[in-house]
Amino acid sequence: MKKIIYNLIVLMCMAAVFAACKEDTNELGPVPSASDVEFTFAPSAENDNILNFSSPSGFLKIWDFGNGKSAQGDNVKGTYPVKGTYTVTLTVYTSGGSAKTSKEVVIAETDPTLLDIPVYNKLTGGNSKPEGKTWVVDAATKGHFGLGPKASTGPEWYQAGANEKAGSGLYNDKYTFKLAGFAYVMNTAGDVYMNGGQAANFPGSTPSPVGDFMAPYTAPTNLTWSVTDDNKFLSISSGGFIGYFTGVNTYEIMSLTDDEMFLKYYDNVNGEFAWYIRLIREGYVRPTEPVVPKEYKIEDISQNFDGVGSANFTGDSQGSIVKYDNPAPVPINTSAKVGKYVKADGQGGEYANIQLPLKYRMDLRARNVFKLKVFIPSYNDYTKVGAEDWQSYKTLQKQVSMKLQNSLLGGNAYTTQAEVKQTGLETDKWLELTFDFSAFADREDFDKVVIQIGGEAIFTGGIFFLDDVELLPE
Hints:
about 10% helix; 3 helices; ten-stranded antiparallel β-sheet; 3 domains; Lipocalin; Jelly Rolls; mainly beta; Immunoglobulin-like; elongated; six-stranded antiparallel β-sheet
């Protein structure tokens, strides 16, 4: 009996729900008509770039101003700091549905006083600085200028040391961004610094005393700047640029604060290159941070690729190292596993290496000799460089270099502080090599070990094998 009563109650509830739905449907209002979505607009009394929009039909209204902003109501205001044509859309909602209409709004002139965009304010100083903000290269900071592969997010191949490019024309340039008229003032102090591939485009260019080229140059006076809508890219009009010139004038904004700017840009001669430049606001003094010196000592360094080892080498952007089956397990090296060292093919690969950063400064007074085993296959392709260079490249491929570096001075293939090379090596056999750094035993600044197989200044890539890397005991 209880079950019957329960079922009756459920049926009564469902009937009530259906009735309610039917009743609601009967009470729906009409869909908005064309007249309901009509609207007018006119400049406000205070500013031609602030428009008053009106559509007093009494229904719910949502406005899309076409500039990334929206509003709700019968009478609303839209602000348009930048000249251009904008599509304004009004959507009207009733209980019976919705309808929309759009109209174009043309803004004749940009009004910088209305611009309150974070990236603009950081770049120019905003409305509070009508004279604009001036930026200079952050010359005193390591890594203020550098190079990496196109897909990188930082200068993996090369980082300039503090003031390394003094005398090139790079550090005396000033770059001023103004909000009014989006004006860009490039003060070159008479000369600029550039990639060698651009030298022919600058009359009077000469080799720079610190590499690449410099040339006399006075920038045009009518330059402007712009930032993409997503705030990711900064562009300078024709004739203007920022920092070291590589033939482009568009820069990816990697980071931007009120005081610092970090930009990435490309090279119109070599499409695989990405250049980096760091700038600071003129007059900005970077807060000094206490430098905690690394401890001066020596520890075991070893890696045989069969076990864990104390040295975990990692590749740079163009070189890699992985554990791999021994290609030639012969008496000099019967290990099951060795390190497979792959050197990238193409521009940038000439500086490929593997690295071991240390948490201390090396004390080389008692322990300063390294040993390792290497296998150089003869199947590496040297012929891609052309017949005239084949022999010299083939010779360079038969080379192993070990370097000790100071990371505070750049610590990459461009800034080697101590190097020992083994050249003219045999192929297709395991070789045991010794690298003696006793000549540098009085140095106290090394905190990185770099191994480079195949030589520098060649672009043919290659596959090599490495094993039993060890700093010999005292």
